[in-house]
């Protein structure tokens, strides 16, 4: 049973929250110096900019330097882009050193005074502006980038083995975007354990894979959903999904609420693979009670749902209705209770409840991995991103692949590929790139022979020392002229 949208009584509160979020987003744009690039006004030229700062190996010292450094690190496929923060004095992330005054006190009452001072000097809320959250930086650049730059950003993030945005709420409105075009050129390779032969290597947007969705109901201060996902995806502590314990994380996270990220587990065909087939993992950020549209979309495409549930004994009506809808759904549900210990109940192949309070992380991961694997074995529901397009349109999501610029780009690319497929590649290369074929080989041999003759003449005539520089300059000029002439002629005739 799909989760029904929220009641109309929540409309006024939603509009108010959107207005506040929009104001904060505009302040973030101004803080990063990106006002002129929003929306979708940042092109590929900004990504490939090389300046003096590009050659310096240092961290940004001002907030307005963050976007440039982010793009530069991503251009070089630097995984450290995930933890990029500003190292200026105002946002270094270091607590101020408390000012102390020396007072003469008797040794006998120093212990009592220590606790009195703790009570009197209770830390107040830090009113200073904190640093920009690394994921806010990534998402604000995503909102400013045009469709072609978004595709490049997604490809680079995929090279870094980082999660990619699948559903992106607009910062100022209730519209949700499904960036299919941005994800359309990402390739993945994997090898399933029960199949022999070569690796599967294909565009991940066309790959039919089971989807496992992770959501959170309530606020969980003791367990991180993203950390659980990272442990499932990698045994080497790789932060595919950004979590609260990552370097640079702050409490103030503006643009990740309601974002759905996706990452893929690709097996190697070895016995120690966590899963036997390629599996897509989706992560809904924020409380699922506040993001009904994203939750309903995930329910329709997921083979297994995993819900991290807190406040189970004091859950409000919205949470109870949401959880009831998940339990009554056709999809299997794994319910992780953060306030229960040693609970593992449920019908085999349907709904399973696991208590994770005070549990060893390794034991939880073994149990969770085994549970998900068993549920996937009994499920035949596979989706590709291309197949999710229809679902996204049914929910009224904005799809970038339907925009005129993306449609035209795909048409031009297809036209070019069709031209290349009509003739053999060797023939096309000989026509369009004549210097890279036999002509280039002959020119190289001619240059070598010319240089050999020059050196031979030099040795045989024993040129005076004062004439040698002039002779070398004349020889190099002759070689440059010959190469330039051949290149210009070849370009002219092409």
Automatic annotation (TrEMBL):
InterPro entries: URGCP. Residues 132-416 form the Up-regulator of cell proliferation-like domain. Residues 93-113 are annotated as: Disordered. Residues 93-102 have a biased composition (Polar residues). It comes from the Eukaryota. It holds the Pfam family URGCP. This is Up-regulator of cell proliferation-like domain-containing protein.
């Amino acid at each position: 049973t799909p989760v029904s949208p929220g009641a109309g009584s929540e409309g006024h509160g939603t509009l108010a929250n959107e207005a506040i979020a929009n104001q904060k987003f505009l302040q973030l744009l101004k803080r990063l110096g990106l006002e002129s690039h929003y929306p979708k006004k940042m092109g590929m030229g900004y990504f490939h900019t090389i300046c003096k700062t590009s050659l310096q190996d240092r961290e940004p010292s001002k907030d307005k330097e963050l976007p440039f450094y982010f793009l530069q690190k991503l251009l070089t496929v630097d995984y450290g882009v995930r933890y990029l923060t500003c190292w200026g004095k105002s946002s270094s992330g270091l607590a101020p050193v408390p000012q102390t005054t020396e007072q003469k006190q008797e040794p006998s009452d120093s212990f009592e005074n220590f606790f009195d001072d703790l009570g009197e000097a209770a830390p107040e809320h830090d009113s200073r502006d904190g640093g920009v959250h690394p994921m806010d930086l990534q998402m604000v650049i995503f909102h400013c980038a045009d469709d072609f730059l978004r595709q490049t950003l997604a490809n680079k993030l995929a090279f870094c083995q980082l999660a990619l945005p699948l559903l992106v709420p607009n910062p100022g409105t209730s519209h949700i975007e499904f960036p299919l075009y941005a994800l359309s050129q990402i390739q993945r390779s994997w090898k399933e354990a029960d199949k022999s032969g070569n690796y599967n290597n294909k565009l991940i947007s066309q790959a039919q894979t089971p989807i496992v969705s992770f959501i959170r109901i309530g606020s969980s201060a003791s367990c991180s959903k993203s950390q659980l996902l990272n442990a499932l995806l990698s045994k080497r502590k790789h932060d595919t999904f950004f979590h609260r314990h990552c370097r640079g994380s702050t409490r103030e996270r503006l643009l990740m609420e309601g974002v759905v990220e996706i990452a893929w587990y690709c097996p190697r065909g070895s016995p120690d693979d966590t899963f036997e087939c390629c599996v897509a993992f989706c992560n809904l950020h924020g409380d699922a009670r506040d993001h009904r549209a994203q939750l309903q979309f995930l329910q329709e495409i997921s083979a297994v749902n995993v819900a991290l549930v807190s406040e189970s004994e004091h859950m409000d009506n919205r949470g109870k209705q949401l959880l009831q809808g998940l339990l009554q759904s056709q999809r299997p549900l794994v319910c992780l209770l953060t306030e229960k210990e040693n609970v593992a109940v449920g019908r085999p192949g349907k709904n399973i409840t696991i208590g994770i309070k005070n549990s060893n992380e390794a034991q939880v991961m073994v149990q969770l991995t085994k549970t998900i694997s068993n549920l996937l074995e009994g499920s035949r529901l596979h989706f590709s991103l291309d197949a999710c397009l229809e679902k996204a349109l049914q929910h009224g999501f904005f799809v970038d692949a339907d925009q005129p610029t993306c449609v035209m780009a795909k048409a031009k690319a297809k036209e070019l590929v069709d031209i290349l497929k009509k003739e053999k590649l060797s023939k096309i290369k000989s026509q369009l790139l004549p210097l890279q074929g036999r002509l280039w080989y002959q020119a190289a041999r001619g240059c070598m022979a010319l240089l050999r003759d020059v050196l031979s003449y030099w040795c045989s005539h024993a040129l005076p020392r004062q004439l040698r520089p002039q002779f070398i300059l004349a020889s190099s000029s002759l070689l440059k002229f010959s190469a330039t002439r051949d290149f210009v002629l070849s370009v002219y005739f092409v």
